[in-house]
Fold this protein.
Amino acid sequence: MELILSLAIGILFGSGVWLVLRPRSFQVITGLLLLSYAVNLFIFITGRINLNQPPLTLAEHANMAVQYADPLPQSLVLTAIVIGFATTALYLVVLLGSRGLTGTDHVDGKERDNDE
């Protein structure tokens, strides 16, 4: 399970960095979203991975802290998701305004013939 999560975080982060380095604004925004998803997933799994266990412990195991999930990473990820939605909305408004002023969505404002 840890290998799958590590690969998912690595692929998300690598794809996000690659998209941030692209010349088009929409690709930069998509890359920032992928980077935030990778960081959120990383923070979320720091609260331990427990499979096939109930979310709450029974009274006889109440003194064992290993049985509990850490609520701090969950609250940090929830806060990061809300902030991510707000910043994405801001990025999109700036993108639309920039496209309206310049007529293109390239970061440097110039059209290129060899772009995909």
